[in-house]
Design goal:
The chain is an alpha/beta fold. The protein is about 45% helix and about 15% strand. The protein has five helices and five strands; from the N terminus they run E-H-E-H-E-H-E-H-E-H. It has helices at about 10-25, 35-45, 65-75, 90-100, 115-130, and strands at about 5-10, 30-35, 55, 85, 105-110. Helix 3 packs parallel to helix 4 (about 90-100). The longest helix is centred in the C-terminal third of the chain and has 16 residues, at about 115-130.
């Protein structure tokens, strides 16, 4: 089953790393990339191609990940879309607030590529066998 992933990440290198992990592991999921929360909301509101899961960075310009998450979860047609945080922040307050808003997971991005690739591979495999609410 091919899934639609939305990656919201302002760092081009991080977007390339994520795409590389998908490609190297032979996953044929569709990856949509947006550089910030504002771009992502415009894309989601267009309903052009709704994602099955959103991978979200917290530290971004214009609109940070928590601001985006609050808006997403207040939208009746998008609130059930699972969101996994991919962040360099291991701040307890970020973690707590993210779960209070309603995330599906929180991953601290490791510095070493192999560790990063392993975490992304585990995430993709987990979500590949999940059932999703389609609205």
């Amino acid at each position: 089953m091919s899934l639609n992933f939305l990656l919201i990440e302002d760092d081009e290198i991080e977007r390339l790393k994520f795409a590389r992990v998908l490609q190297k592991n032979g996953y044929n999921h569709n990856l949509i990339e947006k550089e910030n929360g504002e771009e992502a909301l415009k894309f989601l509101e267009s309903k052009e191609q709704l994602p099955d899961i959103i991978f979200l960075d917290l530290n971004m310009p214009k609109m940070n990940g928590l601001e985006f998450l609050k808006l997403l979860k207040s939208n009746s047609s998008l609130k059930y879309t699972p969101v996994v945080i991919l962040s360099t922040s291991n701040n307890h307050n970020d973690l707590k607030e993210s779960y209070e808003i309603g995330i599906a997971g929180y991953i601290v991005k490791p510095l070493k590529y192999d560790d990063y690739a392993h975490k992304i591979k585990c995430l993709v495999e987990y979500w590949s066998v999940n059932e999703f609410i389609k609205t």
